[in-house]
Structures are given as C-alpha cells and as structure tokens.
C-alpha cells in the first residue's frame, strides 16, 4: 500500500513538472480552433476545481489532457477532458463526466447530461456529438 502511494505521488510530481515546463508556449493562431489568441497552452492540467489546478489559474488552454475531480473550466480544450463537471468555450475532442457543457464542439461528450450550445439539439443524455 505504501509503495502504491509513493508511485502515485511520484507520477503527480512528474506530471506537474511536465506541465510546468510546457506552460510557457503562447498560441499565435486565428480561426475557429483558437478563439482567443495569445493564451498560454499546457499539455496536461490536473485540478480539484478550477482555478485550483496545475498549472495554477484559469488562464490556460489545454491541448492534451485535463483531469479534474470536481470542476474543469477552460476556454479552449483540444484532447480529453475528464471530471464530474466539465465546461469549455470550444472543445475539440472528448468530454467525459457527469455534466459536460460547451458552447462549440467538434467531438463527443459522454455523461449524464451533455450540452453543446451551438448545436441543433443542444442537450442530450448519455452521448452528444457535433462535428
């Protein structure tokens, strides 16, 4: 049991170092996939409830994995977002949680309640998708 706890702590430490090392990249892009230019991007975000996260704060876009326990909130998400309650402005990938909400989507939502605001059918249970 102690070895398992040590391995988990070491994995979280490595993940935070990787996220901290990649956090200095700025997005310089325009178009539908990057609604806000000049935002910091991280490949990994681990959080309890945004903004209590690594990397710290709520001014990050995620291009990779965002894993949270309670509440994930990010402007631009590309990849996989996992948590109880997930919120994005734009998501390209997969949202997996109890409740998933996004304004624009290119991908799939899996959860009890799934909302894509700019979709013809905005709210669906279990699975919602928009491409």
Shape: globular
Beta fraction of the residues?
A: over 45%
Question: Could you describe the largest sheet, including whether it forms a barrel?
Answer: 7 strands, mixed
- Rg from Cα: 15 Å
Query: Uncertain spans, ≥5 residues at pLDDT below 50?
Result: 12-31
SSE class? alpha/beta
In N-to-C order, the SSE pattern is HEEEEEEE
Q: Total strand count, please?
A: 7
Number of distinct helices:
1
- Give the count of structural domains: 1
Q: Kindly state the mean pLDDT as a whole number?
A: 78
Helix content: 10-25%
What's the end-to-end separation, in Å?
44 Å
Please give a structural write-up.
The chain is of the alpha/beta class. It has one domain (2-130). 16% of the residues lie in helices and 58% in strands. The protein contains 1 helix and 7 strands. Strands 1, 2, 3, 4, 5, 6 and 7 form a 7-stranded mixed sheet that branches. Strand 2 (40-49) and strand 3 form a beta hairpin. Mean pLDDT is 78; it is low at 12-31.
In short:
It is built from 1 helix and 7 strands, in the order H-E-E-E-E-E-E-E. The chain is of the alpha/beta class.
Topology:
Blueprint: H1 2-22, E1 25-26, E2 40-49, E3 52-54, E4 60-82, E5 85-96, E6 99-116, E7 123-130
Parallel strand pairs: 2-4, 4-5, 5-6
Antiparallel strand pairs: 1-2, 2-3, 6-7
Sum up the structure in keywords:
single chain, 131 residues, alpha/beta, seven-stranded mixed beta sheet, globular
